[in-house]
Structure formats: C-alpha cells, structure tokens
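To whoever picks this up:

The nightly regression suite flagged Tyr recombinase domain-containing protein as changed. Nothing in the input moved, so I suspect the structure step. Input below, exactly as stored in the fixture:
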Amino acid sequence: LGLALEPSTTAAYESHLQSYLAFCANHGFPIEPTSDTLSLYVVYMSHHLKPTTVGTYLSGICHLMEPYYPNIRAARASPMVVRSLAGMKKLRGPQPTNRKRALTREDLSTFISNLPNNPSLDDRLFIAMLLTGFFGLLRLGELTFPDNTRKRSFKKLTLRHTVSLEASRFSFTLPFHKADHFYAGNTVMIEALPNSPLDPLTHLRAYLMLRDSAFPLLPTLWLTAQGSPPTYSWFVSRLQRTLGDSVAGHSLRSGGATALALAGVTDNAIQAMGRWSSDTWRIYIRKHPMLL
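Regenerated output under the current build:
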C-alpha cells in the first residue's frame, strides 16, 4: 500500500496535511475533519492560495487522514465544504497564471553560440539535455534528479545502454513519465537535423564521447563531471544564467510543443510525441491560436 503513491506525491500530501494541522493548532480547533472544520480551512487558505490549489490540498489531507477518520471523504463532499470552495472561487475571481515563456530555436542558438572552444563535460551535458528535452518534448523532471532527496528514485533515471544511435535519429527508453504509473516505459525517438547547428544527434554524440570516457562503468545516461545525475536546480540555474528568470523547467517542453504547432504538426501527433494522456497539452502552446 505504501508504494501506491510516488515519493513526490507523498511528500506533497504530507505538506498539505501539515498546513491543515497548523491551521487547527493556530485556531484552537480539534483536528477531527468535520464539514465545519474543513469549510473554515477552505476559507482561510483561500486567502493565501488559489482556491483551486486549496481543492488539491483537500485531496492530500483526505488521503492521509482517512485511515484515522474514515468519514473524512463524506465531510469533504458535504454541501458546506463544496459550496465554501465554490464561493471562494467566485469571491477571489480567476487568478492570473504566471507561466514562464517557452524556449525558441533562437534561444537554443544562443546557447550553441556561447559554447567555449573546448567544452567541458558539463557544457556538453547541458546542451545535449537542452536539445533532447526540446525536440523530445520531455519534462525537465524526466531528465534531472529532484533537488529534494526524498523525491528521488533511481528507477526513473534513463540508462546509458538504452540509447540507440542511427545515422538519422537516436532513441532511448524513458523508464517513467507522469502518465505512466506502472513503469511500463516509453521509447523516445528524436530525428536528426543534418547540417544544422541545432542538430540534437551531433550534440548527443559529442556528450557521449566525453561521458563514456570519464565514466564508462556508470549506468545512467545523464552525468555531470562529478559522476552524479544533474539536479533540477543545476539545469535551471544554467538556463537562467543566459536567458534570465523568464524561463524555467516547463519552458523546455512548452517550447518544443509550440515549435511543432508552428510547423503545422497535427494535434494528435503532438499529443502522442509528448506522451500526454489528454488534451491538457494545449496549455503548453505559448502562442495565440490565430498565430498558429
């Protein structure tokens, strides 16, 4: 039962529960989750978070407290709580979403042109990850290790032996992604761009040459000069060092999806290439529909 949730989900749920327990302690309420207590929690938290986020918090609270309070889901579904949440959504109104901008091919060219004459392993690693993530529509979390050690799982790391290099493309096995709850794995295939400075195959070969020379026995594909998997902050800090804080982890995936949409690739193809299980991929397109 303990393995049903991913470590990252468990950590998030525990954070949600701590916010509820702190709310009860600060206001002198018993921790038993009644409809009244949950309703007051919704109103209080909606003044600090988006009401939609508070709804997500309630899910985590219900999951962790249900073994001790079997009636918590009935309290969560009560008219008092449901209407309190709906009322706060109306009262607070639609909250603006501050999404980071998508990467563009011009951004990629900037990084390529800034490469030193004799790139280090870390330089080659960053460029290879950047182009692989962009053209493979990968989440940054599928390329890096979480900064929070509790959320790390070696089962999610891509392995070096799964990489297949061909003349016009390369592929590797992605052991896990957000829509793959049982580690079935997916093959990511990326086409080469011959004679282009942005060719992901050329830069991956250059990285693998240094990586295999430095760490021939280590199993994971992506390795820094220290022989460890790159962390999320390691990648984002290098990204923002050049482009500023207008970009972040999601800029990689949204940039690749937007580039495909601008190139006229069909919706179904983009969804399949990005391994989206629903049409939520549309929020990754950072261009107005009239411009596509």
